[in-house]
């Protein structure tokens, strides 16, 4: 007789605490990227250069969307961990593809080349930050029981 398959135990409190921390990292990454692009490189990201280093409301909205993306990714990680074998591999692929899409979308915007490239790089860095941070959170908050 074979042993029953292992099950997954999700420490939801630990997972969501890590997810909230990841959301804060993603939001601050967005703000830091915008400050660097506008203030140091003088490249308009999300708003015309005349809006200054901090930009307008779009800077806050961009940060909020980055944080929201991290929370959605946390929910995805929890669902995958509870329902899918080798959830980490699927999570990595889904995040890599989502990051690739977010990185490519600005290329189609009707703005200057420097602005499009800066936004692409910013989206890539945010996606990498969310993916790597949540992958580490998942390793500590989700355990296989044998």
In short:
This protein has 146 residues and is mainly alpha-helical. The protein has helices at residues 12-40, 57-83, 87-104, 113-141; strands at 7-10, 142-145. It has one domain.
Report on this model:
The protein is mainly alpha-helical and 146 residues long. It has one domain (8-140). The protein is built from four helices and two strands. The chain has helices spanning 12-40, 57-83, 87-104, 113-141, and strands at residues 7-10, 142-145. A two-stranded antiparallel ribbon has the order 1-2. It is elongated, with a radius of gyration of 18 Å. The two termini are 16 Å apart. The model has no long low-confidence stretch (mean pLDDT 87).
SSE blueprint:
Elements: E1 7-10, H1 12-40, H2 57-83, H3 87-104, H4 113-141, E2 142-145
Antiparallel strand pairs: 1-2
Supply the key terms.
single chain, 146 residues, mainly alpha, transmembrane
**In terms of quaternary structure, what is this?**
single chain
State the separation between the terminal residues, measured CA to CA: 16 Å
**Rg over C-alpha atoms, rounded to the nearest angstrom:** 18 Å
Spans of at least 5 consecutive residues with low confidence:
none
Q: Structural class of the secondary elements?
A: mainly alpha
The chain-level mean pLDDT equals 87
Number of strands: 2
Largest sheet: 2 strands, antiparallel
Keywords: Membrane, Transmembrane, Transmembrane helix
Protein name: SPW repeat-containing protein
Transmembrane segments: 15-41, 61-83, 90-110, 116-137
Pfam families: DUF6069
């Amino acid at each position: 007789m074979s042993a029953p398959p292992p099950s997954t135990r999700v420490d939801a409190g630990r997972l969501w605490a890590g997810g909230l921390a990841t959301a804060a990292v993603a939001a601050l990454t967005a703000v830091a990227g915008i400050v660097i692009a506008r203030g140091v490189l003088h490249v308009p990201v999300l708003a015309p250069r005349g809006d200054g280093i901090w930009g307008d409301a779009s800077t806050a909205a961009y940060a909020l969307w980055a944080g929201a993306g991290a929370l959605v990714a946390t929910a995805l990680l929890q669902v995958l961990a509870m329902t899918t074998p080798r959830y980490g591999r699927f999570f990595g692929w889904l995040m890599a593809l989502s990051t690739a899409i977010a990185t490519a979308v600005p290329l189609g915007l009707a703005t200057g080349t420097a602005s499009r490239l800066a936004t692409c790089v910013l989206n890539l860095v945010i996606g990498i930050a969310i993916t790597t941070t949540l992958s580490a959170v998942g390793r500590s908050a989700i355990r296989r029981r044998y």
